[in-house]
Amino acid sequence: MPRPRKPRNCICPHRAGYAAVFKPAGVPLKDIQVIQLAQDELESLHLCDGEGMTQEQAGVCMGISRGTVQRVLASARNKVAKALVGQKALAISGST
Fold this sequence. Notes:
Layout: E1 20-22, E2 34-37, H1 39-50, H2 55-62, H3 66-85, E3 89-92
Parallel strand pairs: 2-3
Antiparallel strand pairs: 1-3
């Protein structure tokens, strides 16, 4: 049985139930694949790439370890790259 998930402190301005979808222009959403970006993935991108924090500083802000930030950040960057290169929709979920 896996260990329970540790709560994460997410203070990014694009959080809390805000369901944003970014997609290529001129293509209906129903015609393209949607990639889900979780709230903690967005928060790690915001802190590390947007605010210029180190992974250790971001981990302190989010209440998680640096290693977890590294894993979540790698996942977020992978999803954003796939959405941009593959011309797919990127949906930001409101829950962790």
